[in-house]
Amino acid sequence: MDKPVPEAQVEVLRRMYDVFQHPGHPEMVAMMAEALHPEVDWPNVAENTRLRGHEEVRAYWQAQFEVGHPLVALEGLALGTDGRTVATVRTGLRDAEGDHWAEEPVEHVYTFEKGLITHMEVRSGSGRR
Q1: E-only strand ranges, the chain
Q2: Pick from 113, 94, 80: nearest CA to 2
Q3: What is the distance between the alpha carbons of residues 88 and 74, in angstroms, rounded to a whole number?
Q4: Which of 16, 40, 65, 103 gives 23 a disulfide partner, CB atoms 3.0 to 4.6 angstroms apart?
Q5: Rounded to whole angstroms, what are the CA distances from 10 to 15, 26, 45, 89?
Q6: What pTM, to 2 d.p., does this model score?
Q7: pLDDT in tens, 14-48
Q8: Is 25 helix (H, G, I), strand (E, B) or coil?
Q9: What DSSP element (H or E) covers 8?
Q10: Who contacts 1 (Cβ-Cβ below 8 Å, separation ≥6)?
Q11: What DSSP designation does 103 have?
């Protein structure tokens, strides 16, 4: 991972993670249109399936916030040897007792085309999703 992540991708990902931290953020729909390809391929980690398009991803995120308040803290960005952008993140959940963070980070791996995210996968010590 020697090359820097293109600045446009850095900006898209930082904004996306920032907006995601706030349930019901008024910029959520606009951010999705600016960051995600209309036919984006996205993981549903809870059900180990794939989602396709803005509406399925929006519904997935909304369902996550109905169950609890997921937390995702961006810890770093790097360009993978395959040209995809790798975001190292710490995940957690906020509840009435406070924030609970996972001990180990995971990687969110993004494929971009023409400035939009077309594919995302999650990598951890146990493999991809």
Answers
A1: 36-44, 49-52, 69-79, 85-95, 98-101, 106-113, 116-124, 127-128
A2: 80
A3: 6
A4: 65
A5: 9, 21, 23, 14
A6: 0.88
A7: 999 988 887 777 888 889 999 999 999 999 988 99
A8: coil
A9: helix 7-20
A10: 78, 79, 80, 81, 86
A11: S
Q: How far apart are CA 107 and CA 72, in angstroms?
A: 11
Provide DSSP, 36-66: EEEEEEEEETTTTEEEESHHHHHHHHHHHHH
Distance (Å, rounded) from C-alpha 108 to C-alpha 51? 15
Pick from 107, 120, 19: nearest CA to 70: 19
- The C-alpha R_g of the chain, in whole angstroms, comes to 14
Q: Residue 128: its pLDDT value, please?
A: 46
* Mean pLDDT score across all residues of the chain: 89
Quick: pLDDT tens for 69-107.
Answer: 888 899 999 999 999 999 999 988 888 888 888 889 999
In this structure, what token pair is assigned to residue 111? 């494929």
